[in-house]
């Protein structure tokens, strides 16, 4: 099946972001994409100072638009970090997924909050305004089961392993790495998660805006289960396409059968929720 990743140029105008995002979703569908993904924070600038201002309930304005365009195009639509979600007085970094009938199939709240301090380069603390999610998020398609994470979630190998154990063959991470962590770890982490679990991994970044308070790395990417980069964007607004070949995934798992060779008598990963 064809997967499309929309590397959107995000502005401060929510209505404009939504309109352009939906237009690019329609374009991707017209080119045969069956699963389409938007980047983290696609309808607002990324930064703790913006989260409260741009927050919405779910369902709300942004998710309604995503539901409508998913139904119109008859696709599976991953809404990036569609919005900062407000619920019960708390804010969450939330990704929603809609099916071809417009129904919401999954709602992933970012599990691991991005609190880092690299002296002289970048300091960021999502926990100043956001609360963490407490659950794994998967959804089924006629093609395969898909596991969801958001940006910093990708650094935690256990989460990807659990998705693999539960039958996911594609992991999708809307993300916004920066100019410090992006060149160092963006592609490295994707290839690691793909090889470790013999799955496809797709990451979707906003396009780079050098004038933004937080400058995204860009380079939305798809990696196959062999660890090869099979599609990669630059830094500009664009849509990239790749065909997900599940036959190739099965062949790789047969050739190097690590999933059946794990020593469950010695170690294991378990979920608490």
UniProtKB/TrEMBL annotation:
**Which segments constitute the CN hydrolase domain?**
1-246
Q: Which reaction does it catalyse?
A: 2-oxoglutaramate + H2O = 2-oxoglutarate + NH4(+); 2-oxosuccinamate + H2O = oxaloacetate + NH4(+)
Against InterPro entries, the record matches this protein to: C-N_Hydrolase, C-N_Hydrolase_sf, Nit1/2_C-N_Hydrolase
* UniProt keyword annotation of Phosphoprotein present: no
User: Keyword Transmembrane helix, does the record have it?
Assistant: no
Keywords carried by this UniProt record: Hydrolase
Q: Name one GO cellular component term.
A: mitochondrion
| Family, as annotated | Belongs to the carbon-nitrogen hydrolase superfamily. NIT1/NIT2 family.
Q: State the protein's name.
A: omega-amidase
Q: Which organism is it from?
A: Xiphorhynchus elegans (elegant woodcreeper)
Classification lineage = Eukaryota, Metazoa, Chordata, Craniata, Vertebrata
> What is the name of the gene encoding this protein?
Nit2
């Amino acid at each position: 099946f064809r997967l499309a990743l929309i590397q959107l140029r995000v502005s401060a105008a929510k209505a404009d972001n939504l309109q352009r995002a939906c237009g690019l979703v329609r374009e991707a569908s017209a080119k045969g994409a069956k699963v389409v993904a938007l980047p983290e924070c696609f309808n607002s600038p990324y930064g703790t100072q913006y989260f409260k201002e741009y927050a919405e309930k779910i369902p709300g304005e942004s998710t309604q638009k995503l539901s409508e365009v998913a139904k119109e195009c008859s696709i599976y639509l991953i809404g990036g970090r569609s919005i900062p979600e407000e619920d019960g007085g708390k804010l969450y970094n939330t990704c929603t997924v809609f099916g071809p009938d417009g129904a919401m199939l999954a709602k992933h709240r970012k599990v691991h909050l991005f609190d880092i301090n690299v002296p002289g380069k970048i300091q960021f603390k999502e926990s100043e305004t956001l609360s963490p999610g407490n659950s794994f998020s998967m959804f089924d398609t006629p093609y395969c089961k898909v596991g969801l994470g958001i940006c910093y979630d990708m650094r935690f190998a256990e989460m990807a392993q659990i998705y693999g154990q539960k039958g996911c063959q594609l992991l999708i991470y809307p993300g916004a790495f920066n100019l410090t962590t992006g060149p160092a770890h963006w592609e490295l982490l994707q290839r690691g998660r793909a090889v470790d679990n013999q799955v496809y991994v797709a990451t979707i970044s906003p396009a780079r805006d050098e004038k933004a308070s937080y400058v995204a790395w860009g380079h939305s990417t798809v990696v196959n289960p062999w660890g090869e980069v099979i599609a990669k964007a630059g830094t500009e607004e664009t849509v990239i396409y790749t065909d997900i070949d599940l036959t190739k995934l099965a062949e790789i798992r047969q050739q190097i059968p690590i999933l059946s060779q794990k020593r469950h008598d010695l170690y294991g990963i378990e979920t608490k929720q």
